[in-house]
Design a protein that fits this description.
The longest helix is centred in the last third of the chain and has 36 residues. It contains eight helices and no strands. It has one domain. By secondary structure, it is an all-alpha fold. The protein starts with a helix and ends with a helix.
Length: about 180
């Protein structure tokens, strides 16, 4: 499997490609070359974040062209945009929806890039690490015990939620940055 496909899909899936998610290539490459899992995760995170940034700009351009009245949603997205980015970045929901939606709702591009990099990174580094170190056993378990797949997903979600609760919400970080930006 060639890493070029990971590069292409990680970038394009974040704003235009309907399928497949970069995880498919990330898992395959990490299984094939476990010693390079960190590099593959970094490539996925970086290119997906940059692709998401293109999606934000695309959303901004759509809003400029259509002159959408999004004032009702801007405050809501200002308050919960970081959470929306985190959910979109780590869940199976199409990340492009969050990226383009962030542009439509005029979420700051620099904040989007920061939050997307953190949360996409959590996802891709976890997927690559698990694939590299537990991949074969996990695949065998899933084939022999399909219910275990749902348990693995549930445990993964709980671990990620626990991590966010422990480190504080991204929205609090955004609010602090916004507040300090107003003071300067």
């Amino acid at each position: 499997m060639d890493v070029i496909w990971l590069v292409i899909v990680a970038f394009l899936e974040a704003f235009i490609l309907p399928f497949p998610p970069p995880d498919v290539f990330l898992i395959g490459l990490s299984l094939e070359n476990p010693g390079l899992w960190f590099l593959y995760a970094l490539i996925s995170t970086t290119l997906s974040t940059l692709g998401g940034g293109v999606g934000v700009v695309f959303g901004e351009k759509i809003n400029e062209y259509l002159k959408l009245d999004v004032k009702k949603f801007e405050k809501l997205y200002e308050d919960y945009g970081a959470l929306a980015i985190a959910v979109g970045a780590m869940s199976p929901l199409p990340f492009k929806v969050v990226a383009i939606g962030s542009g439509l709702l005029e979420f700051p591009l620099d904040k989007f890039i920061k939050y997307a990099f953190i949360t996409r990174g959590l996802r891709f580094f976890a997927v690559a690490y698990i694939s590299a170190y537990y991949g074969k056993e996990l695949v065998d378990t899933i084939i022999n015990h399909p219910l275990s797949w749902f348990v693995a997903i549930a445990v993964g979600v709980l671990l990620i939620l626990g991590k966010f609760i422990k480190m504080g919400s991204l929205n609090e970080l955004y609010a602090q940055e916004k507040k300090s930006g107003k003071e300067n």
